[in-house]
Structures
1.
Amino acid sequence: METSTSFILRPWQISDIDSLVKYANNKKISDNLTNAFPNPDSCDDGIKFIKIQESYNPAKAFAIVIDNEACGAIGVFQQTDIHEKNAEMGYWLAEKHWGKGVITNAIKQTVEYGFKNFEINRIFARPFGSNLASQKVLEKAGFKFEAKFKNTIYKNGQFLDEIYYAIYK
């Protein structure tokens, strides 16, 4: 049975740069994220990311902190135009903390935060079809499967399915 590791969610700080770069430089993580997530991740990339996050009010993304170290990220990003009542959720976690209930609980907290702080009715996530672990944590956090788009993602020289999960206010 999975036991949850203790963590906190907090805004990113420039002092997180070393742990951000340390944990983000993992091909197993970047292989399951869009190409906007740099690999390898440099200090310059990390500083740029943190400065962008510091500019948002209310915050859109948080550091996942375990034992006083930023070990991952999670965020909720309100969409625009006709999709303005929707927000996309994204997340990643240091490999050493996988399978300990951290992401499931972080998703639940971030959903609550998103519905409270943004004028949205739906939060969705788009895990790759090959990322079964991410699909499972979304389901554990209350998200429901909505759609599967066959071979819509092109990552690392191969086509992958894109899966949509969502939760409603």
Note: The helical segments are 17-24, 27-30, 43-54, 102-117, 132-140.
2.
Amino acid sequence: QRFVELFHEHEFWESHEVLEGPWREGGSGFYHGLILLASAFVHVQRDNTHGIAAQLRKAEAALEPFVPHYLGLDVAEILTEARALRSRAERERTSPPDRAPWQTRVRFPTLTLDPARLRGDEPELDGE
């Protein structure tokens, strides 16, 4: 929940940090995917087109096994938005440097926790 709150506040580095310890402890592939997703938006804030595309590509691979939903999040929707932004970043890699910064041109995604999307058997729930 704290990850989602920070993500909504566009505190992407901080949201990533919330999951770093639990991911390292438990090895959750889902947490890793969310960390990579947050990292991509750190690169949006830093206007790093290459970093956006690279982190989203990794996030997509990490989150794909959790479609359609996991831990209350709509993973299919997250992936749809991630793929669209990655494609855009890949197309714009060679854009002239006078384009507007990424964070002024991107709609930041909204992650919605929905209890109906909890399966109940997610290992990440064991310690919470």
Note: The mean pLDDT is 92.
3.
Amino acid sequence: MRKVKLQVQLSVDGFAGGPEGQMDHLTWNWDEALKNYVTELTDTSDTIIMGGVLYQGMSGYWSSMKEDDEQYSFATKMNTYDKVVFSHSIQEPLTWNNSRLATGDAAAEIRELKARPGKDILVYGGARFVSGLIRENLIDEYHLFVNPVVIGNGLSIFASVDGAFKLELAAARGFACGIAVLEYRPKRV
């Protein structure tokens, strides 16, 4: 069965974005080792799931990437992978290559995606969408990119968790750019 892998950037105090979704506090000057980590993570996947707000930001960015840009090889993956967008607000047809709008129950649709043949499934967000996946226990691996900043308040991916939610540490690694990646798996009892 395919795994659902979350890749998300967080502040040290656990926020995926500022109160209005701002991302200006995040570290973007990644070192080569962190870029290689992301490449390895994406190479094990062939499908991306995300919420509508993130789709609107990512679709224009990655689909307009030029061949001479250093991120072009990663953009090619983003543009060719299947993308399933979970949104109640998007009404117009999706224009980003290989994208489709999920219209059913998100948990049921993700379980059905996991049962299909193929590589793993990446989750990129946004915070409210990811929070719902966590609440439904749909994430198999958490790749938490902890940025060296505290922002005080903002959007939490753990906002909808009700009660204790135990995780097992699979790996922890620091990178020269200041980001620490913590890889967790749900502790299944």
Note: Residues 166 and 189 are 10 Å apart (CA to CA).
4.
Amino acid sequence: MFKIISLSAACLFASQAFAGPVNVNTADAETLAAELNGVGPIVAARIVELRSTKGAFTSPAELTEVRGIGERTVEKNAEFILLK
């Protein structure tokens, strides 16, 4: 049982470790959901929607304007968020 729990935990952390840099100003919702930790398909679609109405994000902090994204989510993904 311990081995199963350990393997499950390792898989969980491995999936988070492979999040990659993603340009939040050009990526589609599917890519955003796949590459940003804590961002699922619905929130990713909201990023694309806000971007299309407001224009390009100029700082990662602007992502907190998206319903479902807080400061903690931005902090967790800071190294993966590209703007250009």
Note: Residues 6-16 have pLDDT under 50 and may be disordered.
